[in-house]
Each structure stands twice: as C-alpha cells, then as structure tokens.
Write a structure and sequence with these properties.
Elements lengths: L3 E2 L2 E2 L1 H4 L3 H5 L4 E5 L5 E5 L7 E4 L1 E5 L2 H9 L8 E5 L20 E8 L2 E8 L3 E5 L7 E5 L2 E3 L2 E3 L3 E6 L2 E9 L1
C-alpha cells in the first residue's frame, strides 16, 4: 500500500507496512528494466520470534487484519489476538509494549517445530510468525499452554516474567 509507488520501491513506505513487518519479510524482489530484477532489504522486518507486552483482543481474523492495515497501529508494541485473553493478566494493558530489555535469546527450527528461549522483564507474549493450524501445541518450561492466533494467522503464547524455554511442536 505505501511501499510501492509507480512500480518503484518507496523505502519510507516500508516503515508503514505492518504486514511486511510482522511476516518478517526481510528481502523484496521487484522487476526492473529489461527483464532484470532489483533486490531490497527491509530494515523494518521483525525477527521470526519476538516479545511484546501488550495485546489487543478482537473477535475475528478479519478485524485483526483491519487493525494491522492501520499504519498508526504499532505491532512492535502490541500483538493482535483473535479471541478473548482478558482473564490471563499477561498484557492486560498496563505493560510497556515491546521492551528493549525483554528479548528472544535463541530461536531454533526443529524437525517438528521450534524452540525459543525468551527472557521477559514483565509478563507478555512470545510471537512466532508461523501459520497457526490445529496441529500445533506449545509449552512454556514444559507446561502446556494455549496458543492464540496472532494478527489473523500467526501464533503467540502468554509468558510470565523471567527466562523461559518455549516449545512449539507440530503433531
């Protein structure tokens, strides 16, 4: 919407495209003159897994996408979750959004899933930009947890403050 103008890349527009950010689109290939291509690096792309401390709850994936379209929404501060998460306490609206001190320490792709080590300064959400389907299961420190749908397609789990091992397994 903002990142292509007259068939050319608008680098400033990348900063406004929340879809490319949360999907982790790090490289963009566009056609150039006479059959050649141009490659661009997107400096705004999020990592495959990241931490936020706020959540916006919406009743449908369509509403999640509508919020994500709004360039005033900052996905680095809040995750958009389809469904109710109000009873949990994590990301209840009193946090600070994306903390520079909370971090993903490691991310490993496994044969049937992913392993993430996260260190959170306060309760929040670990977001994994992998499409959510019914066969995913997650655990925090070996304890099963609910996977919430993030941004209408990806996955997120609630995580307490502290250092934790989060596993996402596909069974």
């Amino acid at each position: 919407r903002y990142w292509i103008v007259d068939n050319s890349l608008n680098p400033e527009g990348l900063a406004q495209n929340n879809f490319l950010k949360v999907a982790g689109v790090k490289y963009i290939v566009l056609p150039a003159d006479q059959g050649s291509t141009q490659y661009f690096e997107n400096p705004y792309a999020f990592d495959r897994a990241y931490v936020v401390h706020e959540a916006v709850s919406v009743p449908s994936d369509e509403e999640a996408v509508e919020i994500l379209k709004d360039d005033t929404f900052d996905p680095a501060q809040s995750v958009i979750i389809t469904g109710d998460v109000s009873s949990t306490g994590a990301g209840s609206g009193t946090g600070t959004g994306r903390s520079t001190e909370s971090a993903i320490e490691s991310y490993t792709a496994l044969k049937h899933g992913f392993s993430v080590t996260a260190d959170l300064t306060e309760p929040g959400y670990v977001v994994l930009t992998e499409n959510m389907v019914p066969f995913w299961h997650a655990a925090v420190d070996g304890n099963p947890v609910t996977i919430h749908k993030a941004y209408g397609t990806f996955m997120t789990v609630e995580c307490p403050a502290g250092k934790h091992e989060i596993s996402f397994s596909f069974r």
